[in-house]
Amino acid sequence: MPLPNRVKPDGTLFSDPARGLFYGNRGGRFHDPATTAVPVRLYANPHWLCCLLAFKGRRRQLWGRGFTELFFCDEVTALAAGHRPCMECRRADALAYRRALVEGLGLETTPPFPEIDRILDRERRVGRAKRLHRLAAEDLPDGAMIEASPGEWLALSGKQALLWSPSGYRASRPRPSGIVSVLTPPATLAALAKGFRPLWHPSAAN
Description:
By secondary structure, this protein is an alpha+beta fold. It has helices spanning 75-81, 91-105, 113-124, 186-193; strands at residues 6-7, 13-14, 22-25, 49-51, 70-72, 84-85, 125-126, 129-130, 133-136, 145-149, 152-157, 160-165, 168-174, 179-182. Strands 9-14-10-11-12-13 form a 6-stranded antiparallel sheet. Helix 2 (91-105) packs across helix 4.
């Protein structure tokens, strides 16, 4: 039985055989190594990262005594949940994300990544609940994730809205208009709008 270490676009955890394209963590351990139950607490600290599946040959026992390892369908999913590229294993992507974020937010100075993490933390959750942002669909960049209905999420790509699933995107719909509920934090939306390009699951191209 898979561990409940897969991440939905709303940041919650679940079990599924689909491994996904990215791996990550939330700054430390928040699971109980003695059980495989979904943790009550869903983060250890504000540093939520999106990492490579393989890096320098490192191997770990999942959900052991170290940090809580997580898996994402793709980077669009990770960004929606409130993660950002890891500076260690994805340095070029992390720096590109930060440059786009700085430009998108109109910042006069480049913040350190811990400050970006604090910005994302304010934008991605209210207590333990996912924070949704009511925004105009017409203003959203490609790569934004919206909530179509509770438990149903759509990733925006061109004129399409792609229906998310743990193993990829299952169907496309016309891109919505009007005010929608957005999962992707506004700071990340700003980075997407200024050219940061996340890695999509291959099913997005079908």
